[in-house]
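Why show two proteins at once? Because comparison is the fastest way to build intuition. When a single record is shown, students tend to memorize it. When two are placed side by side, the eye starts asking what differs. So, the first record is below.
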Amino acid sequence: MISRRTFLASTAAAAMAGTMKAKAASFEGEILRVQFWGGSDGLALRKYVVDPFIKATGAKVIVEEGVTSASIAKVAAQKSDPQMDVVLLDDVGVFALNRQGLLDEIDISKVPNAADVHPSFVVDGGFGIGFWTYITTILHNKKGPAPTSWEDLWSPAYHGKVLVPAITDTQALLLVLMAAQLGGGSLENLAPAWPKLAALKPQVFSFIENRALDAQVLQAGQATAAVDIPTYFKPYMSDSSDVGVTTELKEGVFAITGAAVLVKGSKGNRDLAHAFINQTLSPEAQAGYATEAWYGPTNQKTVVADDAKPYVIHTPEQLAKVIQVPRLELVNKRPEIIENWNKIFFG
């Protein structure tokens, strides 16, 4: 298994040859089967990956839709007769599927755009590679000062003014982890989170359930901070919105990576599959994700439009501070977190 450093060093040597191969390749009549999310995420991928890929290669791309958990389940269920060639899913899916031996390592000589991917987004030694990243951070009402630290959520200024994620969302698990870290703990030691969350209880305005209504509450100033993923609020934020997004927090912001994987034993043309992954990593596609969905780029050559910059992680300084959590370990902690969360907030 290769390291991130080796992965990206190797891409530099392979990039020119890989680029020539990609330009020369013709896949007229070939079929590629892929799976990724539905909804707005799926529409962005169709617009910036699938459609230009079909036009460039002449291949037919058959898309099935499903969230990460469904994609994991489908690949596992089809292990004796794989039906998917490429799957795009959250980074936790890379670890979950690779632990079951259901993935093939990506051949970087066939993915020239990988040379420009930030090392943070090479997943599980090269069995997955990130094509976008989305953050969990603090949104706020811009009529007041922007928070500069996660600790600000506990300040008197936010008493009764914080929108908190529902425990069914990963964002709540990440908030618990941050509470533990602020109290001197860690993912391995969550004990400091419980008194910290008890102290957060008086700060809570409500729990996030309906983003349209929550955006109105933030806009009106009834709540002045929200812990969530900014893209969920995008449909409800106009250019004149008083809702802002904080990407510069002292401790950093949490990032989850959307990654591409190759399904082991799949039937499709492997060169075609690698070419598809290469398209997900292109600067043009990633600029589209940023504008369309507020998902940050992983390709360091991506130019993010000015109107998307406040909502995505994209600079080297931001990438250096991003908090990437071992998601399988976080999921394993979920029963403990839910039990304590419910006692604190609803007991």
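Second record. Ask yourself what differs from the first in the token line.
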Amino acid sequence: MRRAIATAVAGLALLALSGCTAPAAPRASSSPAPSASASSAAPTGPATTVAVLGDSLSRGYNACDHFGDCPAVSWAGGTDARVDSVASRLGARVGGPVTVRNVAESGATVADLAAQVPAAAAAHPDLVTVLIGANDVCRASLDDMTSTEDYAATVGAGLQQLVALDPGVTILVASVPDVTAILPAAAADPTARFLWTHGGCATALADPQSRSTEAQVRRAAVADRIREYDAALAGACGALPRCVYDGGALHGYTPTLSQLSALDRFHPSVVGLHELAATEWKALSTSARAKALLDR
């Protein structure tokens, strides 16, 4: 999600935190992703490459003990055993080494897929994960949200481009999480309300405790737009034989306060990222469309 939240977090840190330093946050990372359950013996199964597309949700943003990206805890390609990422679980399933190419970018919208797709395809991945759309609704006003038509056209073109560049690739498409689902978990928390006031998702989180008609209409419009994005994802992915859509599983995920970052009460914590990984792995590992990937 958007980097604007970091400004508010930095201010709060002067009051509540100490010893935090800004991280080195490269746009892309490439690293081995051993499974948490792997033994000390050298893997004997096939090597696997996983490419990660999307936004800060796939970069582990604000999930570690510093502000910014922390790709080691990415739900898709991280190496941290506490998360047990999709890449780690895939490595354990096939019994071989996994290399991750994370080209997701914090703050990215669906328009940024045009640059991410060729960067991912250049790694010749066996699996590509896609999670994009939160920043398309997290805007200053409803009028600033990406239209459903533009989102659908861009996602469809991106997935088609992936297959054109690498016809044998398996794609895992996560549904867009309902950002309004954060409200029940954290709206009563004063720290969360402070951070949201200075953050970058006014469409969903402004006046979080308000029951006014305006607030409810605004939140409903955000939730409706996300459902429309998810319908577009389902259609675009369904048209490709080796594309797995999670069926709305991530959209239906409602976080607890402990599953939200202590630094911004918006992005997932390590515990939350573990939940994301488990949710998306279940979708991938139970789909017949992933059979060629899983049964190598």
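One difference worth noting in the second protein: The longest helix spans residues 213-238.
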